[in-house]
Amino acid sequence: MDLSGAWQRAARGAMLLGAGGALKPTIFAEMSALALSTGAINLGQGFPDEDGPAEVLEAARQAISDGVNQYPPGIGFPVLREAISAHQKRFYDLAPDPDREVVVTAGATEALAATILALIETGDEVVTFEPFYDSYAAMIALSGAVHRTVALRAPYFQPDHDDLRHAVSDRTRIILINSPHNPTGAMMGRETLELIVELAHKHDAIIVTDEVYEHLTFGQTHAPIATLPGAWDRTVTISSGGKTFSTTGWKVGWMTGPSDLLQAILAVKQFLTYVNAAPFQPAIAVGLGLPDAFFEGVAGVLQQKRDLLSAGLSLAGFTVSESQASYFVVADALPLGFADAAELCRHLPELAGVVAVPISAFVKEENKSGYASLVRFAFCKKVEVLERASAQLAGLAR
Predict the structure, then answer these.
(1) Is the sign of the CA dihedral 34, 216, 296, 93 positive or negative?
(2) Is the pTM of this model over 0.90?
(3) Confidence of residue 149 (pLDDT cuts 50, 70, 90)
(4) CA 161 → CA 152, 171, 325, distances in Å?
(5) Residue 2 has pLDDT above 80, yes or no
(6) Cross-strand bridge partners of residue 148
(7) Any residues with CB less than 8 A from the CB of 293 and at least 6 apart, and which?
(8) Is the N end or the C end of the chain the one with fewer CB atoms within 10 Å?
(9) What is the DSSP code string of 332-368?
(10) How remote is the C-alpha of 316 from its chain's centroid?
(11) Residue 46: what pLDDT?
(12) H-helix segments, the chain
């Protein structure tokens, strides 16, 4: 049977088509399976191993008991849309209309998929920064667009502005940014954000911004690009509650932006999941209303975990880039004699009892050499797990 179809574009875009057209697992699936089969500590996939705040979990249980178990409205329950609007005002002085400028989605992933599929015509160009989260590449390819990238280089992972100017043209439909950035943990500076807005106006492009790590920053405050002069009218801002509240399995995300853009995206989104996560929506609304001390605390605890794992990686002999945000830290294995991080990651369970992910998995094939020795480690784990992983990794230095 011929199984050709659009799935091949998506898989090829995400670099998951192997020799002869066979579908390969994502690097996350491969490394998580390796951790499971070997009993290694999984610092590859970015999910926490601790539950979120008790108030949020209890709100979900209460919603289930109260019968909030059927379809919510297509754009999300009012209580969550109002909480998202209030959150944007509280932290960023943005005031999206909860009835017209906020849409609840099945995580940020659905929001990104719906946005790209809704706003792209075949042959349009989408510019992302590289390394890039793999779902970006899959959706760009599925939409029939051309994927252009701008390199982020170690150790600071900031784009060259001339490279950015060269990548964006009149063919660019979307400039897709991710700050705080996965997989590098970098945050874009204001000058870069201002240049993106300038280029979007010059070339009539739409800005799509993935901000799921917005509250998990270390020593600096996240500034959404939508707050910059001239940005709001052409920006779709995407975030979710999974990372902030350690509820990644709930898949509650959202989009904010001008009504005309969101209505166009909703035309596609409504035929993807339709709706999702009924009892979890009011629970995330509770989370968004938690006091400042919660948001400061969750970032502070995560920063301590970053410092713990970074120190362990340094003692093991890696060269470590300082993570400014997110769940992740990037380490260069070249000083340890490993030029191929993908190969190292496949042997790391037997060498150190730890699983990680090569940065090359987030890079186009033709550009992998520039990232070949870099490894991403997740530090969103219990302290005792990070201590054990650090002790085991120390054996690499001997």
Answers:
(1) negative
(2) yes
(3) very high
(4) 11, 19, 22
(5) no
(6) 127
(7) none
(8) N
(9) E-GGGT-S-HHHHHHHHHHHHSEE-EEGGGGS-GGGG
(10) 27
(11) 87
(12) 6-13, 27-38, 54-65, 78-92, 107-119, 134-143, 161-167, 190-203, 259-269, 280-288, 292-316, 341-352, 383-393
